[in-house]
Specification:
By secondary structure, the protein is of the alpha+beta class. It has 13 helices and 11 strands. It binds cobalamin and iron/sulfur cluster (2 copies).
Length: 330
């Protein structure tokens, strides 16, 4: 590395970005691997307010906020963070019927942790083959990184009022990931400005008022948290009464977002709905054995909810629809 010149670094950076796009990533930006100090304060406040609900895996130890905001805590020798976005939009609709429970779009195809992770690891392998001493760590969701904050720093998009990252070219239907590396690279400095303006459609559409302020979601009130992450035996009443047909996750705040008019079908075939399903038949969810469930959702993000969680959500939807139809006759 002694013979390093700006030209070498520029060429290496361009080659890495080219390879990332060749592997299928739709957006890529590169920033220095420094601590996220301002974002750390937001994260700390979010924890102090209890907005993380029972997601105690997010703050396992006292140093959790430091660890989640400093890439050098995750990969010693970190110099740069290569940040990527992968479009997952496919042109399918939901089955809207009281007998079915809707799946959120992010879980229609194969598990994004696997898809994004595999592409990042392929990029890392290519870097190791092409640049002496190159090493790194692939991160997508599971690793303690603030994916959205990195995407903003790298200029991929801005954080909408619903708190998801929106890109100008694909809307918010993108998964985010990072490759932390020991390579010095040329950095992106252009940040995407906030294009929400005076719009408040997501805040107004959220049926449970979970977006408690611009860019802040209280997970306790969020249908996505309650139907995926919560391990409680029953859904809270206010969630069950506002579930709007969602069996797993919730897309309401993104479906109403005007920036998602820029959505375009992804070329990644693994995001095509498995078995062409965007909703599941509720009675079938209640009937599955553990073995049937495990076989059906192998390599799917849906396994996160566990069979007990899906059954709980299905029961709540069936209960709500029986109350509605009883109400029709009263
Ligand atoms: C925990 C988590 C959740 C929780 C909490 C969501 C949340 N808004 O934080 C729950 C279970 C509710 C959830 C739901 C969903 N999730 Co989620 N989730 C995560 C996870 C693991 C961590 C997010 C986190 O750190 N939250 C803590 C808060 C404090 O962090 P933050 O939102 O980034 O905070 C920033 C801003 O909100 C803002 N901010 C926050 N507080 C304050 C305060 C002030 C004063 C200011 C000015 C700003 C500000 O600045 C912060 C710093 O950048 C990430 C993966 C990862 N490792 O990052 C995925 C991730 C955010 N989820 C993702 C997805 C797809 C979803 C769902 C769409 C799934 C679904 N369809 O059901 C929903 C969306 C719900 C929503 N409206 O947010 C994607 C989002 C992709 C994108 N385009 O942004 C991610 C990035 C996974 C990935 N790698 O692709 N998720
Ligand atoms: S995912 Fe659903 S419940 Fe959560 S903030 Fe968005 S609209 Fe509200
Ligand atoms: S719906 Fe409006 S306010 Fe909400 S994220 Fe989209 S543009 Fe921003």
């Amino acid at each position: 590395m002694n013979s390093e010149t700006p030209d070498n670094r520029r060429a290496r950076t361009a080659a890495i970005k080219h390879k990332a796009r060749e592997l299928g990533f739709h957006k890529v930006g590169i920033v220095p691997a420094v601590a996220l100090d301002a974002e750390r304060e937001h994260l700390e406040a979010w924890f102090v307010n209890g907005f993380h609900a029972d997601m105690n895996w997010m703050r396992r130890d006292d140093d959790a906020t430091k660890r989640r905001t400093d890439p050098r805590e995750i990969f010693a020798g970190a110099r740069s963070v290569i940040v990527v976005a992968l479009n997952y939009f496919t042109a399918h609709e939901h089955e809207e019927s009281p007998a079915h429970g809707k799946l959120s779009r992010y879980a229609w195809g194969d598990d994004y942790h696997d898809v994004v992770g595999e592409k990042l690891r392929a990029l890392l392998a290519w870097m190791s083959d092409n640049f002496a001493g190159a090493a790194g760590k692939a991160c997508c969701d599971i690793q303690p990184m603030m994916d959205k904050a990195w995407a903003v720093r790298a200029g991929l998009g801005w954080i909408g009022k619903h708190s998801n990252v929106i890109t100008r070219d694909y809307g918010s239907w993108v998964f985010l990931g990072e490759l932390i590396t020991n390579l010095e690279l040329e950095y992106d400095t252009q940040i995407e400005s906030d294009h929400c303006g005076s719009c408040r459609l997501c805040i107004e559409a959220c049926p449970t008022d979970a977006i408690i302020a611009d860019r802040i979601v209280d997970a306790r009130k969020c249908i996505s948290y309650q139907t995926i992450e919560s391990r409680a035996a029953t859904l809270p009443d206010d969630i069950a009464h506002a579930q709007n047909g969602w069996l797993y996750g919730c897309d309401i705040c993104q479906d109403v977002c005007p920036w998602n008019r820029f959505e375009k079908p992804t070329a990644e075939e693994r995001f095509t709905p498995r078995a062409n399903e965007t909703a599941l038949e509720l009675v079938q969810v209640l009937a599955w054995t553990q073995e049937e469930y495990a076989a059906r959702f192998r390599h799917s993000a849906i396994k996160r909810a566990k069979l007990s969680g899906l059954r709980r959500n299905a029961q709540a939807l069936l209960q709500a629809s029986s109350e509605t139809s009883r109400g029709d006759f009263e």
